[in-house]
């Protein structure tokens, strides 16, 4: 069987791989995406889309559709127990997009796939599980589980946190498992203000609620241990106990629990193999930046794949790794703030300090991912 050739092959057609495909199509760089799943994942995992990412959606011609589908969050309201302490005003930032967009990851990936197929109709090969990668000098050979073969000059691993590209390139994935665990659920929004995200710091641990899409609100609650099996009534009762507010259980449409990890690849490059997205870095979802960090990788990568050279690859690997370390530190801070505490008095003082003006502007920049672009 003869191998299908392309200058660039992207392994993984999740949020990162689909975005990279759209960016390469815009630049007329020949590429293929190999994706093992038959369709886009239906799980709503990520909902936050930050200002630097909206600029990338503009570049691929998807800005107006994204703005039409997504919800705009302009303020984060902070509570200690059920007392409102103040707000972080995202609309105060000097940015073309003074808000955080919220949209279910499955809807976002569907938008990206539709755009990719418009820009490069033959580029996405689904049901293609990559099993073997062999890098010899300037040619990389790839085989999939159905016996198909491919070859390319540059291979990009966008195949998620258990990346086989990373493993086959012998790149270590260093980091820790945090003790923190959470439950989350999507419900119809009964809180009201669609532009506000609510963050409750309570003695029993964090509760967050974010409006997303057209009418939903995502509730996230910190738990003492990993809870595998729970129902909407459990989540709502716990939320009510901690905050005085609860979602309407009859409108529940997604429930899930998750633990948290931090992992960063020891290098983002090995020869002509490069990593992007969760294959390169996994940061805590509290703060909602993992997917966006992957998109910022792709914005850098697409530029250098237009005129590839070894120096630019090294620069990509160093710079994006540094940015991932910064993002991981920010996520770490957000997560620690949400841990259970004993002194409400001290927590209130700390939150007041954070909401005071000079620190607040810094927080706004951090929450909206400014400074993490290349
Ligand atoms: C609960 C939760 C909430 C989150 N919230 C946010 C948020 O609000 N904001 C944010 O920015 N991030 C958030 N994240 C993180 C975000 O979901 C991930 O960072 C994002 O999905 C990473 O995208 P990716 O394309 O790099 O990897 P993935 O989404 O893991 O995609 C990898 C793709 O590669 C494919 N693949 C894997 N192996 C192979 C193979 N051998 N051959 C072919 N294909 C393969 C997979 O099928 C998959 O489609 C959240 C995560 C969780 C768990």
By secondary-structure content and strand pairing, the structural class works out as alpha+beta
Radius of gyration: 21 Å
Question: Which fold name fills CATH's third level, the topology of the domain at 4-44 and 104-175 and 262-337?
Answer: FAD/NAD(P)-binding domain
- Given this structure, which CATH class of the domain at 4-44 and 104-175 and 262-337 is correct? Alpha Beta
Largest sheet entry: 8 strands, mixed
Write down the overall geometry: elongated
Q: How many separate helices?
A: 10
Give helix and strand order, one letter per element, not per position.
EHEEHHEEEEHEEEEHEEEEHEEEEHHHH
Instruction: Give the strand tally.
Output: 19
- CATH superfamily annotation of the domain at 4-44 and 104-175 and 262-337: FAD/NAD(P)-binding domain
Supply the CATH architecture of the domain at 4-44 and 104-175 and 262-337: 3-Layer(bba) Sandwich
Distance between the termini: 41 Å
Unreliable residue runs: none
What does this structure look like?
This protein has a domain at 4-44 and 104-175 and 262-337: 3-Layer(bba) Sandwich (FAD/NAD(P)-binding domain), CATH 3.50.50.60. It is an alpha+beta fold and 374 residues long. The two termini are 41 Å apart. Strands 1, 2, 8, 9, 10, 11, 17 and 18 form an 8-stranded mixed sheet that branches. Strands 6-5-13-14-15-12-16-19 form an 8-stranded mixed sheet, with helices on both faces. Strands 3-7-4 form a 3-stranded antiparallel sheet. It is elongated and about 65 Å long. A hairpin with a 2-residue loop joins strand 5 (75-80) and strand 6. The model has no long low-confidence stretch (mean pLDDT 94). It has helices spanning 15-26, 51-59, 63-69, 105-119, 164-168, 232-243, 290-306, 310-337, 344-355, 357-367, and strands spanning 4-11, 31-34, 48-49, 71-73, 75-80, 83-89, 100-102, 124-125, 130-136, 139-144, 149-157, 173-188, 196-201, 207-212, 216-223, 254-265, 269-270, 273-275, 281-282. The chain has 10 helices and 19 strands. Helix 7 (290-306) runs antiparallel to helix 8 (310-337). Bound molecules: flavin-adenine dinucleotide (FAD). Flavin-adenine dinucleotide (FAD) binds next to helix 1 and helix 7.
